[in-house]
Write a structure and sequence with these properties.
Elements: H1 2-14, E1 26-31, H2 45-56, E2 67-73, H3 75-80, E3 87-88, E4 91-92, H4 97-104, E5 109-115, H5 120-129, H6 131-145, E6 148-152, H7 161-174, E7 188-192, H8 200-210, E8 221-223, H9 233-245, E9 262-267, H10 276-279, H11 285-288, H12 290-295, E10 308-314, H13 331-340
Parallel strand pairs: 1-2, 1-10, 2-5, 5-6, 6-7, 7-8, 8-9, 9-10
Antiparallel strand pairs: 3-4
């Protein structure tokens, strides 16, 4: 009997334990302004607050997110430092210090997204013309506004990876990688597809060379929203798992991406009526995917769990969808998630392994 008890005890000790939950670190929203992501004019800040107050107050005085990404900067205009009716020195006129400070004064980090699906050609043109200068210009804007930069280069067929490498090198020549996160302008991220079946060449390059936790160049990646909202948690997690696993069957393969080096994205507006991700946390994918996001086992690095979530998109991302403005604000979805997951505000230093 004693031998049997000792054997059972040995087997019990040897059983693998479930991955412990890792706190959500990044919990952000892409913010499109009131003109479908153009940001063509400076905002009246009283109106801006009325439209976006839920982002900085989820009902208990705390913000609903710890990051907003102002979307989008046109890359060719940034390269040329264009000034026209919609742009000032290469940056949309609405992306000014008033908007940035509105969030930063409340502990919410701010980034500018360069690109988007509308500006694929502009990215290609800018990278072909002078990627080094583009990177230097982006770094200058980041420093002047105290914001980070997101690379949203959605060229699926033949991305200019050499040009993008030159852009990143130039940016990092001015703003070296900062593991502490203390220098907001040093935060440089990239958007990848929801899984590994689109933006394949970009995912391969980014995963192997820029998001390696032992020699990091970019802070992290966002696995963007799919073409439509996943029907359930399993569908969302299947996309994210592709980044975790990589694609060994591809030629050349895509290596696994460290769980600590990416976020997953969900829609908060999907049509002409609010969705649970905006209005009802308990019925949302933010809730049903939470266990996976916080505990998925990594194949690279040492810590389990993804960095967190990004949401597409606040205010008015499209003329064909509702806006997240009153009465369709998202404090009961996104905001409730921030409270449930005890999201750190302001954002704390990110896991590096």
């Amino acid at each position: 009997m004693l031998k049997k008890l000792l054997l059972l005890l040995t087997l019990f000790v040897a059983l693998p334990s479930a991955a412990a939950a890792t706190p959500v670190s990044v919990y952000g929203a892409w913010l499109c302004g009131n003109d479908a992501c153009t940001w063509a004019s400076a905002r009246d800040m009283n109106d801006f607050d009325a439209k976006n107050h839920w982002l900085v107050n989820r009902g208990d005085g705390m913000p609903s997110v710890n990051l907003v990404v102002l979307s989008f900067v046109q890359p060719l205009k940034l390269l040329n430092r264009t000034t026209d009716a919609q742009t000032l020195n290469g940056v949309p006129r609405g992306m000014d210090a008033n908007v940035v400070n509105y969030f930063k004064s409340r502990g919410v980090r701010v980034m500018l997204s360069v690109g988007g699906i509308t500006y694929v050609d502009a990215w290609n043109q800018a990278l072909a013309a002078n990627p080094t200068q583009l990177g230097l210009n982006a770094a200058q804007v980041a420093q002047s506004l105290g914001v980070g930069i997101e690379i949203d280069y959605e060229e699926n067929a033949s991305p200019n990876l050499a040009g993008l490498q030159a852009f990143i090198d130039a940016y990092r020549s001015q703003l070296p990688y900062d593991a502490t996160g203390g220098n907001h302008a040093a935060r440089l991220t990239i958007d990848l597809a929801a899984g590994d079946r689109w933006l394949i060449a970009l995912a391969r390059k980014a995963t192997a060379d820029w998001l390696n936790p032992t020699t990091p160049v970019l802070d992290y990646a966002n696995a963007m929203v799919a073409s439509k909202q996943p029907t359930n948690a399993s569908a969302a997690q299947a996309d994210w798992q592709e980044h975790i696993d990589g694609k060994a069957q591809y030629n050349p393969p895509i290596p696994p991406l460290a769980a600590a080096k990416f976020t997953g994205a969900l829609y908060i507006v999907t049509g002409q009526s609010p969705c649970p991700e905006c209005t009802n946390f308990g019925a949302s994918l933010i809730s049903s995917t939470g266990s996976y996001v916080q505990s998925v086992a990594t194949k690279v690095g040492t810590t389990n769990g993804m960095l967190g979530y990004m949401f597409w998109a606040a205010e008015c991302p499209s003329t064909r969808r509702i806006c997240t403005t009153p009465p369709n604000t998202c404090e009961n979805g996104v905001g409730a998630g921030a409270r449930t997951y005890n999201v750190p505000i302001p954002m704390q230093p990110l896991r590096q392994n």
